[in-house]
Amino acid sequence: MDRENSNIVSKVDKQKLLYEAKLEDVQFVAAEADQDDLEALDRSQEADKRQLNEIIKKNSRI
Q1: N- to C-terminal Cα separation, the chain
Q2: Global pTM?
Q3: 1-60 pLDDT, tens per residue?
Q4: Burial of 12 (0-12, 13-18, 19+ CB in 10 A)
Q5: What is the b/e burial string over 17-36, where b = at least 16 CB atoms within 10 angstroms of the residue's CB?
Q6: Most distant CA pair in the chain, distance
């Protein structure tokens, strides 16, 4: 199978796409986190999963 023409996205490529889409400009210090920070972190991780799924769907249609 020719990898360059494959619609299958590798795990590394998925991670690169997610990293490029994320572009965070804040720092998270676990030692100073309160309950609100931890809840925000959970929501952020869930959003990352949804965003990665959208990237995968978009690239699988190409």
Answers
A1: 17
A2: 0.49
A3: 455 556 777 888 888 777 776 665 567 777 888 898 889 889 989 999 999 888 888 887
A4: exposed
A5: beeeeeeeeeeeeeeeeeee
A6: 50
